[in-house]
Amino acid sequence: MWKQIWRFSALERSARGLFLRASFWLPLISISLQWRGFCKTKASLQQFLSVSNGSQNPDAQAYAALTAQMVRAAARYGIGQPNCLKVSLALWWLLARQGIASDLRVGVRKDGEKLEAHAWVECGGVALNEPESPHQHFAAFGAALASLPPEPR
Predict the structure, then answer these.
(1) Domain extents in the chain
(2) Average pLDDT score over residue span 81-94
(3) 121 with 90: CB under 8 angstroms?
(4) What is the pLDDT of residues 41-50, one digit of tens each?
(5) How confident is the model over 95-112, as pLDDT tens digits?
(6) Which of 50, 32, 47, 35 is nearest to 97 (CA)?
(7) Contact indicator for 138, 108 with CB cutoff of 8 Å
(8) Quick check: 33 and 86 in contact, CB under 8 A?
(9) Disulfide check for 86: which of 10, 16, 82, 141 has CB 3.0–4.6 Å away?
């Protein structure tokens, strides 16, 4: 535990803030997904985004990589074991809060008789929360997923 505290305190202030925000939002997103579903959870998160998030930071790729690293760390060391959808929603939302444009991707594949799904976030065509490339084995849904209306009550 002391090693983890030392590593956290050695982070830059911005990285610590990202880690703490991700640690806070991951459990909330998990609960919302379980109780309300994907569409309502995403719609709720979008309500907290300002309309003026279109301006790109010149260091957007560096901030995006740092944000992805801190979300992965929060998922690893935080409460529960969030799946790829929960982690991807948190990452997508934190990036949008920083004014960094990104795309939430959800894909499927068939493995024998089993249908598998996976979620990831892309920024500038690069999958941020993928240490390797498992997302390349999934057929991503198109823009139709991003524009789904909230589910009826």
Answers:
(1) 2-140
(2) 94
(3) no
(4) 999 998 887 6
(5) 999 989 898 988 888 888
(6) 50
(7) yes
(8) yes
(9) 82
